[in-house]
Design a protein that fits this description.
Oligomer: single chain
Number of domains: 2
Strand order of the largest sheet: 8-25-22-28-18-15-16
Low-confidence stretches: 1-33
Helix content: under 10%
Number of helices: 5
Bound molecules: calcium ion
Length: about 375
């Protein structure tokens, strides 16, 4: 019997302990609904969902019968390297909500509607999670004031007249600050809880923005940002189903700049072959850093096989009083990785030493909020 089968490794005994073992192993006595039996044989892994298991029989072979079909899977015991039981990921495992496939409704979000350069119309979409709740992707947009472009390839260089730039008054007794912002692809800026404005171009071309406002210290900056997408709900773009990347750089004339002192939290992660790669921490933070940025659902151009994770935006995220102490620090990326376009490279002097920031995952984290409070 099995005890004498030396080819089984320690893993097996972990699995073995979970199973109701006899000549026929009956799973009715153990709750394996959320588990998967993995059999590793000759370097190849076979995964069987516990819910699909009818029986497992050991003789000289390991024979697995399915509940859903007449399928019988057999392994030569001498060729089995190990057996493990892993917890399968189900919707109930996550604080985030899981959707699968592309949006079931879409609408145009763009302000710019035509362009002679590289132009992709910005569309928004709605995807439903398993419980039927709708999520706007890549993020819900504030349809208010659009910030002037510093640079927009559609309309030519430097479309903002900085001498006549309007000053948006947030606090009448505050100081006047000018901000320069270059985002891949879209941002909204909130200062001291007030919506200052939004990026004119949600998707491409890659523009940059300039905005002047009056605000009083301590000043809380909050960017709501999206890596825009064409295949809405699955985080991919173009006919190639490319996984798009993101990032933002900004400099404020009071010396504030984007850097690692900002906080960054993700609210929409896609595309994923399996949401199990996303780590959710007890403090409510999460990271997709362990997830591949080249999922199979992308490389096989199969958006219907892609998953996404969505998280609700907490009340008051833009306010000075909002507690972001648990949020992860922003990650810094090199210029080569971020690959800024002319909206930045033609105006390096204005952006000074602002750094390229995002959450830890520039590829899969598509809706991100970045925050920083400056005290003077
Ligand atoms: Ca933009
Ligand atoms: Ca992306
Ligand atoms: Ca992008």
């Amino acid at each position: 019997m099995l005890h004498n089968t030396r080819t089984f490794k320690t893993h097996f005994y972990q699995a073995y302990g979970l199973l109701c073992f006899a000549a026929v192993i009956c799973f009715a006595h153990v709750s394996l609904d959320a588990q998967t039996l993995n059999v590793y044989s000759k370097g190849k892994a076979t995964a069987i969902k516990a819910s699909d298991l009818r029986s497992v029989k050991f003789d000289k072979t390991m024979t697995i019968q399915s509940t859903t079909s007449a399928t019988v899977t057999s392994f030569e015991l001498s060729a089995v390297d190990s057996i493990t039981v892993t917890a399968a990921q189900t919707t109930t495992t996550y604080k985030g909500s899981i959707s699968k496939g592309v949006a079931d409704s879409t609408w145009v979000q763009a302000i710019v509607t035509s362009c002679t350069g590289m132009f992709t119309l910005g569309r928004s979409g709605r995807v439903k999670d398993a419980s039927g709740v709708s999520w706007v992707v890549p993020m819900a947009v504030n349809a208010g004031r659009a910030i002037p472009d510093l640079y927009n390839p559609c309309s030519g260089n430097n479309t903002a007249d900085t001498s006549n730039l309007e000053t948006f008054v947030i606090d009448p007794d505050g100081v006047v600050i000018t901000a320069y912002i270059h985002a891949d692809n879209y941002f909204e800026l909130y200062v001291n809880g007030t919506f200052v404005g939004r990026d004119r171009v949600p998707f491409t071309p890659f523009n940059s923005s300039i905005v002047r406002f009056k605000a009083k210290y301590p000043i809380t900056y909050a960017f709501k940002c999206a890596d825009w997408e064409e295949h809405l709900g699955v985080g991919m773009e173009y006919d190639t189903y490319n996984v798009g990347d993101a990032g933002i750089v900004a400099y404020f004339s009071d010396g504030t700049k984007t850097d690692e002192t900002w906080k960054a939290q993700v609210f929409y992660i896609a595309p994923l072959d399996n949401p199990a790669c996303v780590v959710e921490n007890a403090d409510g933070t999460r990271t997709s850093i362990n997830c591949t940025s080249k999922p199979t659902c992308s490389s096989t151009k199969n958006p219907s096989g892609c998953y996404a994770l969505h998280y609700p935006v907490p009340e008051g995220w833009e306010l000075r009083t909002f507690d972001d102490s648990k949020w992860p620090a922003a990650s810094i990326f090199t210029e080569a990785r971020f690959s800024p376009k002319e909206g930045y490279t033609n105006y390096r002097g204005l952006f000074r030493d602002g750094k390229f920031i995002w959450t830890s995952n520039l590829d899969l984290d598509n809706f991100v909020i970045l925050r920083k409070t400056v005290t003077k």
